[in-house]
Amino acid sequence: MKKILLVETKLLLRDWVASLLALALPVALLLLLGQIPDLRKADPNLGGERVVDAQLPAQMILLALLTASFTVLPNALATYRERGVLRRMSTTPVSPARLLGAQLALNLVVASIAAFVVILSGWLVLGSRLPAQVFGFVLVFLLGAAAMLALGLVIAAVAPNGTTASTIGSISMFPLLFVAGMWIPREVMPDALRVISDFSVVGPFVNAMRDTWAGEWPQLPHLAVMAAGLVLFSGLAVRLFRWE
Predict the structure, then answer these.
(1) Most buried residue, 15, 127, 163, 212, by CB count within 10 Å?
(2) Please, which residues have CB within 8 angstroms of residue 176's CB and are 6 or more apart in sequence?
(3) What number is the average pLDDT over the span 79-83?
(4) Which of 213, 225, 221 shows the shortest CA–CA distance to 47?
(5) Coil, helix or strand for 181?
(6) What is the DSSP letter of 37?
């Protein structure tokens, strides 16, 4: 596993533009949207808190995770398949589980850096609050990030080339952003849409993150949905994976 991680890290650093996108886009949007006056006022729909206090940073962290999960990771593995790299790797002792695990771990590091930069930027520039329940925040982030990256691995497992992976990733990413409340706050969603959000992994992720920002421990149902997503998507990725 260590050798795979080392090789994948070197390859990731060569293609640093994709990683920079996962880091820079959420931060840029956070600082841009944070200048909107209404987002810096107390919102009754959010219990009197400002959107920039927790809602906006949580959404930008989600955007960073989905960018890594549905753009960076699938495109990298699918490009390997397209160029015959995976076919050559199939002749080595490397198993699909180890290769996919290395990709998940590496992209989790990238997503963690992006989340840290989002939180720090919001705190320094917009006066956003820091997560009050630190241990709960770390648990939610790692569990939710792993679940989303595992879903990205499902795409990577079946996409024949980078173009297809990017297309599938884009089609999957925007509906998830919608049900997570990126454009319509969950508090004002219709009941049916809120139920879909509750079981989408991204909805529980954003809700649990906001709980930790408020100093509360994440709710068990939110953790359970993310854990179930991680197990389901990881298993599917390994089962569906093809070297070529």
Answers:
(1) 212
(2) 66, 200, 201, 202
(3) 78
(4) 213
(5) coil
(6) G
Unique residue bearing structure tokens 């630190």? 134
Q: CA neighbours within 13 Å on the CB side: how many for 189?
A: 19
Measured CA to CA, the distance from residue 129 to residue 177 in angstroms comes to 23
With vertex at residue 70, the alpha carbon angle to CA 112 and CA 11, rounded to the nearest 5 degrees, is 65
Count Cα atoms within 13 angstroms, Cβ side, for 75.
19
Q: How far, in Å, CA of 171 to CA of 173, rounded?
A: 6
99 Cβ contact partners less than 8 Å away, ≥ 6 residues apart: 4, 89
Q: What's the residue count for the chain?
A: 244
pLDDT of the residue at 165: 83
Please give the C-alpha separations between residue 125 and each of 2, 21, 71, 87, 162, in angstroms, as whole numbers: 38, 20, 28, 48, 37
Q: How far apart are CA 209 and CA 212, in angstroms?
A: 5
Cross-strand pairs, 50: 42
C-alpha to C-alpha distance for 78 and 163, rounded to whole angstroms: 8
Alpha helices in the chain (DSSP H): 2-14, 16-33, 56-67, 73-82, 85-89, 96-121, 134-158, 162-179, 191-198, 202-213, 220-240
Does residue 178 have a pLDDT over 90?
A: no
CA pair distance 168, 156, nearest whole angstrom: 10
15, 115 contact by CB (below 8 A): no
The answer to whether residues 41 and 91 touch, using CB atoms and an 8 Å cutoff, is: no
The DSSP 8-state label assigned to residue 68 in this structure reads I
Gap between the Cα atoms of 201 and 147, Å rounded:
8
